[in-house]
Amino acid sequence: MSAQPARFSVPARLTESVRATGSPADLAWLAGLPRALPARLADRGLVAERLAEPGGRGSLVVFAHRADDLAPVALKLTRPSAGAAEAAALRVWAGRGAVLLLDGSDEGAGPDAAGGALLLERLHGEIPLRSLAEAKAMLEATSLLRRLWVPAPPGHPFESLADRAAATASRLAERRSLPAAADAAPLVDEALEALALAGDGGDWLLHGDFQHGRALAADRSPWLAVAPRPLVGDRAYDLARLVLDRLDTLAASPGPRGAARRRLARLAEAVELPAERVRAWTLLRAVDAALGAFAAGDAGRAELRLEFASWL
What is the pTM of this model? Predict the structure, then answer.
């Protein structure tokens, strides 16, 4: 018999994120989670153990085990329609460098079209790649990315990087008029110019949001990627998010400008990609994150990302 976690409540980080950025459908999904979770567990014959805390900003993860054989699993409930692309990417990777999607012959496994539920291999959620020293973490991260980068399969359902970049450019054009972002205009212009020079990096399946917190320790592999926002395009886009990781630590280091440039160059060299392409995508992602922070009223976070962009 399955059961929901004792005193189940939606994690605060998920609640705050959905309320701040969610659509009406997302808000309805959030309100229905306390009812949906026990139903999804019962559908799959699972016994809940505990929620992943603090959890993500777009999904709820519960650690559970199968009632019949006690096999440990993780059940992930995602915002409406958000799980389809993730599930498709996990199927392509089939456990190679990423958490395994437990579909196959398992009844009830895989994505639930109505509920956005993914049944996943259980990883060690309390041990992210971020727990390693930076130099070691970056080495492991680039090794993992090399495993994830595979040619996009024919007829794939994934968003193109060109479309995501166009949406980012449109968002920058809209947010550059924010009063708090007035001083960022030169960096916005430079980011958009860099985007135009980024060029075509091929049709590779990308994680889309790879960082040290999106790789967890596992039993069958030292580290496996989780929570992709998959898309197809230039591998340098994935690397750009990694360049931006641990920004607070980088800013506190001696000579952060030089440290930022060395980090970018070393990561590009590690995966044999042109540093200028990595710089272009990094600049775009840094400025977009900064203006997003301004829009959310987080001036401190915004200014740090703009400062980082100026170091590049």
Answer: 0.90
